[in-house]
Specification:
With 95 residues, the chain is mainly alpha-helical. 92% of the residues lie in helices and 0% in strands. It has one domain.
């Protein structure tokens, strides 16, 4: 019984990691749009879409219960940690 719960939570953590990868890829795209010339409406649209998709995904996980939303958020934060460290090291190498 415990094994089934662990596998289910691992699946939600993987889903959270996928949400995180999509979110931070869109964030990188959003930064390029905001810093480019003539960003305007497209940058705002990407920004709002990125937030709406993340909220919708976590809302769907929350409807499954507390454990699934916590597992998916843990996956999201794990990807965030990996990417922050990756970009921090990239900035140290190329100031």
């Amino acid at each position: 019984m415990i094994g089934v719960v662990v596998v289910r939570m691992a699946a939600y953590a993987a889903l959270g990691a996928l949400i995180g990868m999509a979110y931070f890829a869109a964030l990188a795209w959003n930064v390029r749009l905001y810093t480019g010339h003539g960003a305007g409406r497209n940058a705002l649209l990407v920004h709002l879409s990125r937030l709406a998709v993340a909220v919708a995904a976590f809302t769907l996980c929350a409807r499954q219960g507390a454990a699934p939303v916590l597992a998916s958020f843990a996956g999201f934060l794990a990807i965030r940690t990996v990417l922050v460290n990756h970009y921090r090291l990239a900035l140290q190498r190329n100031p």
